[in-house]
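Allow me, if you will, to draw on your knowledge of protein folds for a short while. I have a record of one protein: its chain in single-letter code and its fold written as discrete structure tokens. Could you please explain, in whatever detail you think fit, how the structure tokens follow from the sequence? The record follows directly beneath this note:
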Amino acid sequence: MPNLTITLIQTDLVWEEIDANLTMLTEKIKAVDAPTDLIVLPEMFSTGFSLSARQLAETMSGKAVSWLRSTALDQGAAITGSLMIKEDGNYYNRLVYSSADGDLTHYDKKHLFRYAEEEKVFTPGEDHGDFLIKGWRVRPFICYDLRFPIWCRNLGPNYDLALYVANWPAARATHWKALLQARAIENQTYVVGVNRVGKDGNGLAYKGDSMVFAPQGDILADLGEEEKTHTMTLNFDALQNYRDTFPAWMDADQDLMMSPP
């Protein structure tokens, strides 16, 4: 299996200004000077974490999704991040993935952040939204999903990379780091977490801490607290060798997945 090169974009976001965010992100993506397979943006990359879905949500043929697809085609690299989507009368916090060829898939956030009343605005997703890139099986998650290990459980194993996009506040940064590492260790998978920095329109502060963990829990990248773009390569052979030599995944509790997460 070939290795996978990923680019993490840890950035501030302009509050509820779609055009400004797309312009800013275009500049950052164009500045990536190393070949990459997958570019990862934060949660709600076009608006920041907002509940103003009635005013800001778009359809799958809207401006931000069209931008995502056209940018992937222009760059020759897959791109993903979440945004507000309106569909069939409902609103979703939806991660949209565009392949380098412009093919779209998506994942709707399963666990809505009750503390911020996200569940009063958005409809939860029901299914995982796995996608394939260069033969790697990737399972995406969005922010609060990180706190629910059964939903993230990697039976089989069924995926090689867990991808978390987030607007995770600085007040709970310790949880973010600890849970990302735990998800890597317990699922014997690479874990990538991309968070934002700055302050949003509600005055919440974000300190980034976008990170990449190896299946053993080792830190492979830590972007700290500043705006930063980071490109790195994940080694598939290292993942497979670890699973072969330490096959804890074979003893996973299959029956726990029979109950709702």
About this structure: The chain has a mean pLDDT of 96. The two ends are 32 Å apart (CA to CA).
